[in-house]
Amino acid sequence: MSARVQFADDPFRLLRFIVGALLLGGTVAALLMAVTGVAPRALLLAGGLWALYGLFMGVVGGILEPVIEGGARLFSNVGLVRAGGGFSQMEALVVRGRYHEAAEAYLGRIRTGANPIEATLRRAALLAGPLEAPLMAAGELEDLRRQAEDLPPGEDVRVGLALVDIYDYRLQDPGKAMAEMRRLIDRHPESRHVRRMRQQLRRLKADHFGAEFDSVDADPTGRRDASA
After folding, report:
1. DSSP secondary structure string, the chain?
2. 179 and 186 in contact (C-beta within 8 Å)?
3. How many angstroms separate the CA atoms of 153 and 175, rounded?
4. Which of 28, 162, 203, 208 could cross-link to 174 by cystine, CB 3.0-4.6 Å?
5. Are 214 and 202 in contact (CB under 8 A)?
C-alpha cells in the first residue's frame, strides 16, 4: 500500500508523521549537542522535546481520534438514513427473541448497501451467539473483509476483533484467532486499540501454549510484549 493511500485512510497519520519527525529530530539534535559538549544544557531541551512527543501522541491517539471518529459516525447518519431506517426494528426483534427474523432483516440491510459493515457485525453477533452458527458468522465477516479491502482502519479493527472473538471462543481455533490479532497489530500499529490488542495476543499465547510464549518482544514503551 502506498504512503498516499495510508495517509488517506488515516488523516492523523500524516500529522503524526510530520510532528513526530520534527520532535524526534529535535530530540536527537539536542542529545548530540549535549553529548559532544557543544551545549551541555541541551540535555534539558532533549528531555522537554521527548516529553512533548509523548504528550502529542497521547492527545492525538487518546483524545482527538476517538472524538472525531465518534462524531463522524454520528453525522454520517444524519440526513443519510431516513426515519425508521436505523436498526431499531432489528433490535426490537432481538429483544423479543426472534433471532432468525432479526438476522434476515440485517441480511436485507446488507444487500441494500445501507450501512453494511455495522449490519454485518450485528448479524455475525446473532449467528455466533443465539443462532449457534459461528462458522457462518466467521465466513460472512471474512467475506466482508475480502470484499472491502480498503475498510477504514477503525472498521477493519472492529471486524478483526469480532473474528478473533469467534475464532477463540466459538470455534475453539486459537491459531486463527492469533493470526487475525497479529494481522491487526501489524496493519494498524498506531490504532488506539493496539495496546489492548497486544495484551490480548499475549493472553491467547499464554492460555493456549504456556507462559514460555509470554516474553517474545517489547512494545514501543519498552515493556515486554508478545507481538511475534
Report:
1. --HHHHHHH-HHHHHHHHHHHHHHHHHHHHHHHHHHTS-TTHHHHHHHHHHHHHHHHHHIIIIIHHHHHHHHHHHHHTTTS-TT-SSHHHHHHHHTT-HHHHHHHHHHHHHHTSSHHHHHHHHHHHHHTTT--HHHHHHHHHHHHHHTTT--HHHHHHHHHHHHHIIIIIS--HHHHHHHHHHHHHH-TT-TTHHHHHHHHHHHHHHHH-GGGS-SEE-TTS-EE---
2. no
3. 23
4. 208
5. yes
Query: The pTM is what?
Result: 0.57
Q: Give me the residue label for grid cell 445501507.
A: 114
Nearest to 129 by CA among 156, 95, 169: 169
- Spatial distance between the Cα atoms of 207 and 209, rounded to a whole number of angstroms: 6
Side chain identity at residue 59, one-letter code: V
Q: Per the structure block, which three cell numbers stand in for 124?
A: 455475525
Residue with cell 492523523: 12
What one-letter code names the amino acid at 145?
Answer: R
pLDDT tens readout for residues 119-172: 999 999 999 999 999 999 999 999 998 876 678 888 999 999 999 999 999 999
